[in-house]
Specification:
The complex is a heterotrimer of chains A (about 90), B (about 100) and C (about 200). Chain A is mainly α. In chain A, about 55% of the residues lie in helices and about 0% in strands. The radius of gyration of chain A is 15 Å and the shape is globular. Chain B has about 100 residues and is mainly β. Chain B has one domain: SH3 type barrels. Chain B has 2 helices and 5 strands. Chain B has a 5-stranded antiparallel beta sheet. The relative contact order of chain B is 0.28. Helices cover about 45% and strands about 10% of the residues of chain C. Chain C has 11 helices and 4 strands, in the order H-H-H-H-H-E-E-H-H-H-H-E-E-H-H. Chain C has a two-stranded parallel ribbon with strand order 1-4. Chain C has a two-stranded parallel sheet with strand order 2-3. Chain C starts with 5 loop residues before the first helix and ends in a 5-residue tail after the last helix. Classes of the chains: A mainly alpha (about 90), B mainly beta (about 100), C alpha/beta (about 200). Chains in contact: A-B, A-C, B-C. At the A-C interface, helix 1, helix 2 and helix 4 of A face helix 1, helix 2, helix 7 and helix 8 of C.
Chain lengths: ~90, ~100, ~200
């Protein structure tokens, strides 16, 4: 089934908003998500295709409502739980 | 890393007319839905890589050729005077049925 | 982008800290190494790298030819590379001409030559850009205030596989005698993506 990420040609999205002098990351947590993903990919905990697949499997409403790195965070935690690296209880705690 | 138009002994060469698969898979794929079934022209090879449809499911996958395929906007959307060039794995492509297909 | 003021982001920041702590306990990541790798990436990868490539190509016809034929081979001439992260990715540079204008997108996610240019702008990753630019690139350029001559054909490149794309803009008229530094200063990230003339 075509997934929510496959938006090429879709209509109805808002006008583009350009941030002048946009920083590489808007918050520390975003930079950490970026770095964590690289580290986990580098260690072979999951591969890039599995990572994209995990993002795409976000429920459509959540996908569209989530910021870019929120989607990444979701994918990382999903994969870590699916692969038994961390339990869902551990991830929910803290 | 130079890649000739013969695309590392792949099935297609620059200039070939190809048609993208119509299949709507249940799994991860890198064939965008807007290109399904569309006919385009191979621009050049873009290297050889394992099929992401399989890698996303942790299935073994041997590298296969990837091609930059150019489509007319009219073919994709029924309107527009631009082109869209999409990088497509060989598994997503077959020869276009006839040279007159448009 | 969903509201990212401090209130909404605080739970996210806490979740990320918690995740990082769990992974550190498991020995899968090291906080100091994460910081180091991040700093190294940001130092090494920025739009200035793309600007330097363009400036060199504008000044040097033979370099331009090499860059267009095999960008990965040409990058080390400026001490640049598409490696340094995970696998070295294939870079494809596409040249604008008086008749054709190139624009880059990744409709399926947000693929971008990160290793060379650093993180992409938020608009590039948005559903709005990804959905619209393949269907109405001229309109999207207009949203950036870039009105392209109607006689110029637009080629949109959808980075759907492993190649990463960079636009080589047209050299502005009257800059033929400028040195590389002056030329590089004219090149913007938006120009490298194709939503600006340079």
């Amino acid at each position: 089934m075509a997934r929510i990420n496959d938006v090429g040609g879709m209509q109805g999205f808002a006008p583009l908003q350009q941030e002048i002098n946009e920083p590489p990351f808007h918050a520390d947590w975003e930079a950490h998500v970026f770095a964590l993903n690289r580290a986990l990919l580098g260690r072979g905990v999951y591969n890039l295709d599995e990572f994209r697949d995990a993002i795409e499997r976000l429920p459509p409403q959540e996908y569209l409502a989530s910021s870019y790195y929120e989607k990444w965070l979701h994918a990382i935690t999903t994969l870590l739980a699916d692969k038994g690296v961390l339990t869902r209880e551990e991830l929910a705690g803290g | 890393m130079a890649e000739s138009a013969a695309a590392a002994a792949g099935r297609f060469r620059a200039g070939d007319r190809v048609q993208a698969s119509r299949i709507d898979p249940a799994h991860h794929t890198r064939l965008p839905r807007y290109a399904r079934g569309a006919v385009g022209t191979v621009v050049e090879g873009q290297g050889r890589y394992p099929l992401p449809d399989r890698r996303a499911r942790a299935l073994p996958a041997e590298p296969e050729p990837v091609y930059a395929v150019r489509f007319a906007a009219g073919e994709l959307f029924g309107a527009g005077d631009h082109t869209v060039t999409i990088d497509l794995w060989e598994s997503y492509l077959r020869p276009a049925r006839s040279p007159e297909h448009q | 982008m969903s509201g990212d003021h401090a209130g909404a982001a605080a739970p996210l920041a806490a979740r990320v800290r918690h995740l990082e702590a769990l992974l550190e306990q498991r020995g899968l990541v090291d906080a100091a190494e994460l910081d180091r790798a991040l700093a190294a990436f940001l130092a090494r990868s920025s739009p200035a790298n793309g600007a330097r490539l363009v400036a060199r190509a504008w000044r040097d016809e033979e370099f331009r030819a090499r860059l267009l034929a095999d960008a990965n081979e040409a990058l080390p001439e400026l001490e640049l590379s598409m490696g340094g992260g995970l696998e070295e990715q294939r870079l494809k540079v596409v040249a604008n001409t008086p008749d054709t204008h190139n624009v880059i997108v990744c409709t399926l996610c947000s693929c971008y030559p990160l290793a060379l240019l650093g993180p992409s702008p938020t608009w590039y990753k948005s559903e709005a850009y990804r959905s619209r630019v393949v269907r109405d690139p001229r309109g999207v350029l207009g949203e950036f205030g870039f009105v392209l001559d109607p006689a110029v054909t637009i080629n949109v490149w959808d980075s759907s596989a492993e190649s990463r794309y960079l636009v080589l803009p047209l050299q502005p008229a009257g800059t033929e005698d400028d040195d590389e530094a002056a030329l590089a200063a004219r090149v913007t990230r938006n120009g490298l993506i194709g939503v600006a003339p340079v």
